[in-house]
Amino acid sequence: MISTDQHQCVLFDVDGTIAETEGQAHLPAFNLALQNAGLSWRWNKADYKQLLKTTGGFERLMRYAEEHGEDAEAMRDQLSAAHKAKNIFFAQILAAGSVPARKGFRELVIALARAEISWGVVTTTSRSNWEALWRYSLAPFGLPSPSVIVCGEDVAKKKPDPEAYQIALKRLGLPAQACIAVEDSRNGLISAQATGLEVAIVKSEFFADEDFTGAAMVVNELTEIADKVRALSE
């Protein structure tokens, strides 16, 4: 796992990993955007669990259209506008303070800082979504800022493609062996492993039952990782 001798940076996925944003913010924001766009679609948690197999919010909307007999390409502009509106609703939900960081995240970042290990963000969610989470749920902790931030706009291919992690390592100027990824999904695990990264999995609301074969560590809460990092510094 995390080693003060080997690792210089811990790279975190965002949705489900840093905060349970999928069910608490993304899903309700999608439904508000669908209603706002005049579409009759409404997603429950079971629908969304299946849709999460496709990374990227706009991609999920396109997939849903295709699977329900719609001409997705003809709806591209409408769905793109709906996705932009969804991100605005997402930020409003976070601004209300209803989506906290996951248990142990604050303690983990502080423990990393004390061990002189930086942290970064590697997500294929929109930058505006990350910025909303940082502003409303994370920055109030007074945490050090992430050393690198890679978001959906930075990549041509989203997870499970390794591009996001490859970009993060290039920006950091570090080899994969000097970093470790924290993910909550199999797509994230595949993406990080394909970049040569060791991966820790924290189980989340929608992905807890996925196959995490090959992960260096699987935990229920980030607190478990924070405890191990604190032990290294003692």
Order of helices and strands: EHHHHHEHEHEHEEH
The CATH class of the largest domain is identified as Alpha Beta
CATH superfamily of the largest domain: HAD superfamily/HAD-like
Briefly note the CATH topology name of the largest domain: Rossmann fold
Adjacency order of strands in the biggest sheet:
3-2-1-4-5-6
How many domains?
2
Radius of gyration (CA) equals: 18 Å
Amino-to-carboxy terminus distance: 16 Å
Structural class: alpha/beta
Low-confidence stretches at least 5 residues in length (pLDDT < 50)? none
The gross shape turns out to be globular
Number of strands: 6
Largest sheet properties: 6 strands, parallel
Question: What is the mean pLDDT?
Answer: 96
CATH architecture descriptor name of the largest domain: 3-Layer(aba) Sandwich
Describe this protein's structure.
This protein has helices at 21-36, 45-51, 57-67, 76-95, 105-114, 127-138, 163-172, 186-193, 222-233, and strands at residues 9-12, 118-122, 149-150, 179-183, 198-202, 217-219. It is globular. It has 234 residues and is α/β, with parallel strands linked by helices. The chain has a 6-stranded parallel beta sheet with strand order 3-2-1-4-5-6, with helices on both faces. The protein starts with 8 loop residues before the first strand and ends with a helix.
What is this structure, in a nutshell?
By secondary structure, this protein is α/β, with parallel strands linked by helices. It has helices spanning 21-36, 45-51, 57-67, 76-95, 105-114, 127-138, 163-172, 186-193, 222-233, and strands at 9-12, 118-122, 149-150, 179-183, 198-202, 217-219.
